[in-house]
Please model this.
Amino acid sequence: MKNGDTHISSFTSHAIVLIVLLALTFLSVSVTGYQLGAFSVTIALAIASVKVATVILNFMHVKHESLFIKLMISGVFILYALVIIITFIDYQLR
Amino acid sequence: MSTHSIHSEQIESETGKLGMWIFLLTELFLFGGLFLVYAVFRAQYSEAFHAGAEELNAFIGTLNTVFLLVSSMTVAMAITAIQKDKKNLAIFLILVTLILAGLFMMNKYFEWSHKFEFKLYPGSEVLKNLPRGELLFFGLYFMMTGLHAIHVLIGMTLLAINIFKIKNGEVSSKHYLHLENTGLYWHLVDLIWIFLFPLLYLIT
Model:
């Protein structure tokens, strides 16, 4: 841990993050306009994942947190991904 | 002595944030369970889920997404403001966040009351007589957006408490853990909506 100097995010960096998030939102809304079938679910979820990662890293300040918190958060997300994958394998093999 | 107290304050802030993150990760699994149920039933009743999603108003959904994203920014800015010791700016930004949250809830009210007009609410006869897939879709819709709305209301309460804490000096440029953790909670509300929005409103 760095001694005492907590990182202060600037107002402009927050504004830039918001613009990116809004752009991604309108991208996912416009993509659903095209009939891409099952593919559109994948695209919508991929865009949502990018948005979630952007919020966690920037707004939730994880970019500047300790390695311990970073590992804990990514570990739980990997755990959740495994839960989904294993559930679907179970349904596929019934 | 003073270096000692600064050091223990840092530890307090680190552990306080760690505790908040552990709580947020349990929240992830609370909603994650519902997302899993949604994913499984969507795979089984994909046509009914399409039909259900078409009933929802994508415009209101998009508008609410914008409200929550902007409110996430204002709450992050409020933390920057308090770190820079700009109390009034921080209070103003929290108020903007509260107004955006209020607009979100207003939209939710209109959306739900529109469904109630058609006697579409949990436990209603109309809902019970729907085909099984659509019954599951609307059940999940009310459960997920309802649970999310409860989180919005809790977040609004926490934000309002922070305004008073800034005013009486409990939250300041030196001690702002309370505001930081409230911010983390508010961002979680935003994160959940980021996934709910495409799954419920966009996939048609």
Q: What stands out?
A: Helices of chain B lie at 2-44, 46-55, 58-83, 87-117, 125-128, 132-167, 177-202. Residues 82 and 176 of chain B are 7 Å apart (CA to CA). Chain B has one domain: 2-202. Chain B touches chain A through 44 residues (CB under 8 Å).
